[in-house]
Design brief:
single chain, Rossmann fold, Arc Repressor Mutant, subunit A, ten-stranded mixed beta sheet, four-stranded parallel beta sheet, 24 helices, about 15% strand
Length: about 600
């Protein structure tokens, strides 16, 4: 048999060997080293739990008095003091603890490294239990012991597939009773809740409930959300999953910008995931330098109407056309529709009416019937605005609400609404050039030749929604290291007897500082389904932040010239493999974004 024939014979078996998450890439990333903070390194080079000391920093919410009434036991215990992780001077061996962990909410890259970090902190003398399918599994008591060999298979891989997740909210007395039953039945000494603002709000309420019931089970939250809206200044720069998601989206947006320049005719309207905050859009804009990126928080702050927004976009499209650039990319935050002033008022009115007349509206058979019922119950301005919207947008606005009673913004095709209005406005500019070109305030200077060229151009558009593509990717090197550190921190907190805290890591440029933040310090009062509720506050883009200012200072230049860049695929080795989010580096005032430092690198092989 020739060498070529032998290779042909082996090819099918080599191909089949990649099944079950064993591609060449997946096998390689399992072996990648992970930076580990020095506070977790023992004298023998093995990983050990950290100890915690009180700092001089208080971590308190705006509604402190109201929060104290809701969480008196937890706040009395934490005293609102931030804890700092430190290396144990005399290692204290804690044994026999049983700690459970669950994923809650949407997936985010790095979850499996949280589990690996937990297991490493707990060591062989304590037990890590996984909870299947999130909070629902907690209520049902669906737990299993997590084996070291299982975690060695999933380390550095993406998604939440090992445990699964769901979005069950734990709110009712019966649900809290079920949580207590699960904790007592499985003899849990600790419960780690990995999730976003709602999930960690659950963690805060569970911690308070267990304190009142005198049940000795430590509750620790871990900040997870690709939206990046779980952040708190220097103490909590970002949540995990954000870096991976924004890099996935940046690669795709870079590809679209290159495609637009290649085809020289398309405008790509790209809606990016981010239920409320525009942090994903801002990061992708800084990574790719598109023609236009809309930032919801700026639009609300400056009270920019839908028509003003459309006018601004058409102005940029026109100016680019006059320079011979009839293409570009426009980034649109998923939650934009709720920040446009008149749309925000309309949605608030709809939320109230739909909550009050939920059954009546649900029983109406057609959209027309629903419209006839709703219009008289809205203010005249909102009714007029709603009637002027495309029917498919109008229908989406009155669909079933989410668990908080809010409109499901991901279902509203904001990008298509903008395309429709921009097309009409661009057509108007061509039909009535005398209104828009010439001398005078607000008019654009143009030669007869340029006006003739504009008449010959058409507006070709493509719409995209990038969301799920970024949630379960293989974690970037940053997210892999960040999540492993969060797992080590959470495990250490349980072993140290702490409860009611969120694990946090900061100083990404200096080896990492390990913190424990009182969960109650993140709480605010928010309207949900017409009622005030205590929830963790979302962190939005601040127009005063260095990251937004950096975008604002450069956007006109990017708008009028094709200066886009393509970050390319995520690197796990190579020049961009140690890059952190640009928004984080700017807002934390680091001197470099190309290299994060979370400790000495170590190949993690968990041992029984």
């Amino acid at each position: 048999m020739t060498e070529r024939e032998s290779n042909k014979t082996n090819l099918p078996s080599e191909f089949i060997c990649t099944e079950g998450k064993h591609s060449l890439f997946e096998n390689a990333v399992r072996e990648l080293p992970i930076p580990v903070s020095s506070v977790f390194m023992g004298e023998d080079g093995n990983i050990v739990p950290a100890a915690f000391e009180e700092t001089e920093s208080l971590f308190m919410c705006k509604e402190h008095d109201l929060t104290e009434k809701t969480f008196p036991k937890t706040m009395a215990r934490t005293r609102n003091i931030v804890l700092r992780g430190v290396k144990q001077k005399t290692p204290q061996k804690v044994t026999g603890k049983r700690v459970a962990v669950l994923f809650s909410g949407g997936p985010a890259a790095g979850g499996h490294n949280v589990l690996a970090g937990l297991k490493a902190a707990l060591g062989k003398d304590n037990t890590l239990l996984g909870i299947r399918k999130g909070p629902k599994g907690l209520l049902k008591g669906d737990l299993f012991e997590v084996k070291t060999s299982q975690l060695n298979e999933v380390i550095n891989t993406g998604g939440f597939g090992f445990l699964g997740t769901d979005r069950t909210k734990i709110k009712t007395p019966d649900q809290f009773e079920q949580v207590k039953e699960t904790i007592l039945k499985h003899r849990l000494d600790g419960l780690i809740i990995v999730g976003g603002d709602d999930s960690n709000t659950n963690a805060a309420f569970i911690a308070e409930y267990l304190e009142k019931e005198s049940i000795d089970c430590r509750i620790i939250g871990i900040p997870k959300t690709i939206d990046g809206d779980m952040a708190a200044g220097k103490n909590l720069p970002i949540s995990f999953g954000y870096d991976t998601a924004t890099k996935v989206y940046s690669e795709l947006v870079g590809n679209l910008a290159e495609d637009a320049a290649s085809a020289v005719k398309y405008w790509h309207f790209v809606k990016l995931m981010g239920r409320t905050a525009s942090k994903i859009t801002l990061e992708v804009a800084l990574q790719t330098k598109p023609a236009i990126a809309l930032i919801s928080e700026e639009i609300a702050e400056k009270n920019i109407s839908l028509n003003q927004m459309v006018d601004d976009i058409v102005r940029i499209i026109t100016l680019r056309r006059m320079k011979g650039i009839n293409h570009g990319v426009i980034l649109i935050p998923e939650g934009l529709v709720e920040f446009i002033p008149e749309m925000s008022v309309l949605i608030q009115e709809l939320n109230k009416v739909l909550a009050e007349y939920e059954r009546d509206i649900r029983d109406l058979p057609t959209l027309k019937n629903k419209q006839e019922f709703l219009y008289p119950r809205l203010t005249a301005h909102s009714a007029q605005l709603m009637a002027a919207l495309p029917e498919e947008i109008e229908e989406m606005l009155i669909l079933d609400r989410d668990d908080h009673g809010n409109v499901k913004v991901s279902q509203i095709e904001t990008e298509k609404l903008l395309i429709e209005k921009i097309r009409y406005k661009a057509s108007e500019v061509k039909r009535h050039p005398e209104k828009y070109f010439g001398e005078g305030e607000g008019k654009i200077p143009a030669t007869p030749e340029q006006l003739q060229e504009l008449q010959n151009l058409s507006l070709s558009t493509q719409s995209h929604f990038l969301g799920y593509e970024g949630r379960s990717g293989k974690p970037t090197s940053f997210d892999a290291a960040f999540t492993f550190a969060l797992g080590l921190t959470a495990g250490s907190l349980v072993l140290a007897g702490k409860t009611g805290y969120m694990a946090a890591v900061t100083d990404f440029d200096k080896g990492g500082t390990i913190l424990a933040l009182p969960l109650t310090g993140l709480i605010t009062c928010e309207m949900r389904k017409g009622k005030e509720e205590m929830v963790i506050e979302k962190s939005l883009v601040k127009t005063s932040s260095p990251s937004f200012k950096a975008y604002a200072e450069n956007r006109e230049k990017w708008a009028l010239n094709d200066l886009f860049c393509s970050p390319g695929p995520i690197q796990h080795w190579g020049p961009a493999s140690r890059q952190m989010p640009i928004t984080v580096a700017l807002d934390q005032e680091y001197t470099d974004y190309k290299t994060f430092n979370l400790g000495e690198e170590k190949v993690i092989k968990l041992k029984d």
